[in-house]
Structures are given as structure tokens and as C-alpha cells.
Amino acid sequence: MKLDVTTLDGSAAGTIDLDETIFGLEPRVDLIHRYVRWQLAKRQAGTHKSLGRAEIARTGKKLYRQKGTGNARHGAARAPQFRGGGKAFGPVVRDHAHDLPKKVRALALRHALSAKAKDGAIVVLDKASVAAPKTKALKETFGKLGFVSALVIDGAELETNFRLAARNIPNIDVLPVQGINVYDILRRDKLVLTKAAIDALEARFK
């Protein structure tokens, strides 16, 4: 697969061949869905908690005698049916993460990249660097290139000025190639890859 390479000022910088085994697959929705579900579950804090009847600061004395009152049989006022009592089967602190094999994760990432390539939503940049960390200038540059909602993936290290200029632009995410993930790829309309990012991805999947 051949794509044009562009620079940040919009001029052409040649072409690049993308590896078909990474960018040319027929996207499988089931794999992508499994990865996104795994990723979102993994980042849940799981700190939700409600008080059970054993944790309520309330007397455990029997409300009234067992027989002879005509009322229902009740024990402590901490029971869930009473206002101020403990919650029955409430949420507890737990880990929401579940396992996903490493090979499935790698395959899902390739299918997500292929899905973007199939939609024509991949843009290849020569390099992601700017002379000064000016957000306004970079926002105007992105506007000319049509980057309204985009994920920019650079090489192993982000160029400092570019990272600082881009961090406050709405709907623009910038990540090093190690941080590339399926969820961030799908949540933005455009996937912007630098030549360094493509080289790193191809080396990673060889």
C-alpha cells in the first residue's frame, strides 16, 4: 500500500510503502471490540463501595419482642429493608481487569490500523516538529491540514516543542509509538503517523 508523505506546512515529501500485513488486513470487528473492552475495563478504578449491614454504625439490638406485637419479625435496625440500614448486595472494591492474550492484543492493533487505512483516514507526516511551542500556530497548521479530530503518533520520543504546542488543542492526541493503542486510534477521525512511527511499527510486528 502506497501513501503520500506530507509535511506540516502541507507540501509533498514523497511517498511511502506501508506493510500489507499491518495496514492491509480485512478489519475484524470482534478482535477490535475485545481489545477496547479489555482496555477500558483495565483502567476502571473499581473503588466504588457501599456499606453493608455489618458496617453500619447503628445498634444491633432487637427492635421489639418477637411475638405478640402483631408486627413482622425483625432483628437489628441495620437490616437492608430499613432506612439507614446497610445495602444488600451493594458494590465492593474490586479489580475490573480481565485477561487478553498478548497475541490477540497485537492482532487487534493491526486490525485497527488496517481499519483506518481502509477508511482512508491515515495521514503520513515527514516529521512532527515545530520551531517554537506555540499552540495557536500549530492549531492553525492543523486547520489547514484538516486535522479536527486526530491522533498523532511519533517515534520513540516526542519532540518537546511539538508536544507542548499540541497538548492544549481539543480533540488532538499526541503519543509516542510505544503508547499506540486501539481505543485512541478509534476515538479520533484521523490517524497521523510520522515516518519514524511507521518504521517502529513495522519493526515491532516483524
Description:
By secondary structure, the chain is α/β, with parallel strands linked by helices. The protein folds into two domains: 152 residues, 3-Layer(aba) Sandwich (Ribosomal Protein L4, Chain: A), CATH 3.40.1370; 41 residues, no CATH class. 33% of the residues lie in helices and 15% in strands. A six-stranded mixed beta sheet has the order 2-1-3-6-4-5. The longest helix has 17 residues. The model has no long low-confidence stretch (mean pLDDT 94).
Question: Count the strands?
Answer: 6
How large is the count of helical segments? Answer: 7
Largest beta sheet, briefly? 6 strands, mixed
Mean pLDDT: 94
Alpha-carbon Rg, integer:
27 Å
Straight-line distance between termini:
17 Å
Beta-strand residue percentage: 5-15%
- Secondary structure class reads alpha/beta
Strand order of the largest sheet: 2-1-3-6-4-5
CATH superfamily of the largest domain: Ribosomal protein L4/L1
Give the SSE string. EEHHHEHEHEHEH
Q: What name is given to the CATH topology of the largest domain?
A: Ribosomal Protein L4, Chain: A
Runs in which pLDDT lies below 50 for 5 or more consecutive residues are none
CATH class of the largest domain: Alpha Beta
At CATH level 2, the architecture of the largest domain is 3-Layer(aba) Sandwich
Helix content: 25-40%
